[in-house]
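sorry for the late reply, my laptop died twice this morning and i had to redo everyting from scratch. anyway the thing you sent over, i finally got around to it. pasting the sequence first so we're on the same page, its 101 residues, then the predicted structure underneath. double check i copied it right bc i was rushing
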Amino acid sequence: MSDGPAAGGQRLLRVYNPAVAALPSWRTLVALGAVFYLCAAGWFFVLAPWSRFWGVVVVPKVPLLLIPWLDSPAVRGALSGFGALHFLAAFTWLTAAARKA
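ok and here's the structure:
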C-alpha cells in the first residue's frame, strides 16, 4: 500500500478509496450536531424569555404560584444567561474540533 521511499526516506501512503476517505467521520457529524443543538437552545433561551411568546404561551400554562416568578426580569435574565452558556459550550466544541482537525 505504499509507493516506496520518497525523498528524505519517508514512505508515502496511498488512500485506497479517496471518495470514502473524504467523507466526515461519525465523530465529526456528532460534534456538528451537538454544536447545532447548543446554538439552537442558546438562541431559544436568550430570546424566548423576552419575547411575546413567553407571555402568551409559556407563562399562562404554569401553575398560578409560578406566574409572578416566571414573569420577573431576574428569572428572565437567568434564563438568558443559561442561553449564553449554551453558546459558550458550542464555541468550546468548535474550538476543540478545530484543534483535532
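The longest strand covers residues 2-5.
thats about all i looked at so far, will dig more tmrw
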